[in-house]
Prior knowledge:
The chain has seven helices and ten strands. By secondary structure, it is an alpha/beta fold. The protein has one domain (47-262): Alpha/Beta hydrolase fold, catalytic domain (Rossmann fold), CATH 3.40.50.1820.
Amino acid sequence: xxxxxxxxxxxxxxxxxxxxxxxxxxxxxxxxxxxxxxxxxxxxxxxxxxxxxxxxxxxxxxxxxxxxxxxxxxxxxxxxxxxxxxxxxxxxxxxxxxxxxxxxxxxxxxxxxxxxxxxxxxxxxxxxxxxxxxxxxxxxxxxxxxxxxxxxxxxxxxxxxxxxxxxxxxxxxxxxxxxxxxxxxxxxxxxxxxxxxxxxxxxxxxxxxxxxxxxxxxxxxxxxxxxxxxxxxxxxxxxxxxxxxxxxxxxxxxxxxxxxxxxx
Length: 264
């Protein structure tokens, strides 16, 4: 589908320091006839081109957690585009609605692919981005999206999934199809990710000669990078819990991973 930028609104957030001015700009764009509302986050004080990262949200939609993660990676020298996978920046405040929104994307591979591509193409056109160095990060539902896109041969150099669900629905890749190096950062005690799913993913990636690494954090369950996860888990009786240690360690791993493959 053809992607068109409809316009950029005024900045909604600015974080300043001695050497950086991190700016967040909402951008309205389209995927076919669907209006999408994402955000570009970058250091506005620098005119240098830098690597870009497409960031895909959890099943709740674009929340404070995702805004904060984008800020964190922008401070590390990336231009981050927070992709809108639902359209009109829809969010959910309960599991039923979140499941319906995420399911509407995951059950339609074409929708997932065109919406991700719309975000990637928009990021590549940003003045602050080196279009030859683009990666992707996803959280939970978003982790599944970015892994699917890597499997489908998306033009990405590096892909990281945090507490990524692994009900992957793109075909097993042939050798040479996956361009990205892949890092999966999951909780070892996450009941949403089954051992047979890991086995299937490893089988596919080994057969396709994919460069990948899986790290599992002992005791960590689903959504361990989200500071709001513990409260949400209690509210909805779900196995969600923030884990500061796992969050710190996983972020450090992703930071090294992207520095090696996007900033080299």
